[in-house]
Amino acid sequence: MKELNVATGLENGSVIVAKNGKNTENGHEKCTFHHDLELDHRPPTREALLPDMASSYRLLLTGLGEDPKRQGLLKTPERAAKAMLFFTKGYDQSLEEVLNNAIFDEDTDEMVVVKDIEMFSMCEHHLVPFYGKVSIGYLPQGKILGLSKLARIVEIYSRRLQVQERLTKQIALAVTQAVRPAGVAVVVEGVHMCMVMRGVQKINSKTVTSTMLGVFRDDPKTREEFLNLVHFK
Ligand SMILES: Nc1nc2c(ncn2[C@@H]2O[C@H](COP(=O)(O)OP(=O)(O)OP(=O)(O)O)[C@@H](O)[C@H]2O)c(=O)[nH]1
Ligand SMILES: [Zn+2]
Prior knowledge:
The chain is an alpha+beta fold. It has helices spanning about 50-65, 75-85, 95-100, 145-160, 165-180, 195, 215-220, 220-230; strands at about 15, 25, 30, 105, 110-125, 130-140, 145, 160, 185-190, 205-215. It contains 8 helices and 10 strands. The protein has a 5-stranded mixed sheet, sandwiched between helices. Strands 1-2-3 form a 3-stranded antiparallel sheet, with no helix packed on it. Strands 4-7 form a two-stranded antiparallel sheet. The longest helix is centred in the C-terminal third of the chain and has 16 residues, at about 165-180. It is flat, with a radius of gyration of 20 Å. Zinc ion binds near residues 123 and 128. It comes from Danaus chrysippus.
């Protein structure tokens, strides 16, 4: 039996044809794959795996000492499975699809900052949420991105099983890929429920991560301007 990607429910390395008709590998667009695309051999989508996921939640309820047949819990496994699919819906999105070509030629090299974008993600170690805010800055060189797309980029990568460091970097790399700016800065401030509700139980601790690329990494003044604008100094 082929190994399943736990996060996507797909066979590792497998190809599916997404709703938009594009070939995707575990949710990510992939052009150079030559796997069997015969309809009958397509692995199930995440939605198709809902009943299996619900069964797992039923087992979990039993493991907790609960009775999955009691009235209040009857639909809980299906609800929980759907909720988990929603929390991880970023796996079903690709950068290209989300950007929808909202990239515009513009003769500007002034800093663009969108700050305090809400973020909800799932800690990949404990499967509990971490949440917080993301601030993104970039220095265009001839191309700007539709403003909402910065928030949508946050959604693609936060709605997955994550660690905050990787989330921060993926957002920065996505902006780079989209508009090839002179630099990108991303700061993420997160509260991890695995540190609040369990474990060390530090309810006031916040984790701050940053990725600085290009001029934001090389030039302290540019970095400082960004940090001033997002009040991170
Ligand atoms: N670097 C990083 N660590 C994370 C993130 N989310 C959770 N963790 C940590 O993952 C670690 C897992 O450590 P383990 O010792 O294997 O698990 P644990 O016994 O549940 O750890 P405690 O949380 O200390 O009770 C913990 O230190 C968590 O705080 C994250 O986004 N980034
Ligand atoms: Zn955790």
